[in-house]
Design brief:
By secondary structure, the chain is mainly α. The protein has three helices and no strands. The protein has a domain of about 55 residues.
Amino acid sequence: MPPGYDAEDDTKKPRKKKPQQAAPAPKAPAMAFEEPSSGIDSQKKIKTLTRQLANIDKLKNEKENGKTLTADQEKLLKSEDNLRQEMENLSIL
């Protein structure tokens, strides 16, 4: 033990609990002026779906060339139809 160490002084002291804050107030319902953000959200979703579909195309090519795919990659391939349908739905909006 280091010099000047006092074992009796090494007792654990209970921590003071922070007072709990009230839950934040619920948000107001969406108003018409918030529509542009929903357009931005759909643009982000379309970009994400486009990226995922490009990844699926790459995986298809790899599989055709004889590469063994992981279970996650196979799962992504199986989700292609759903992703394309979702893309169509967002493109129509």
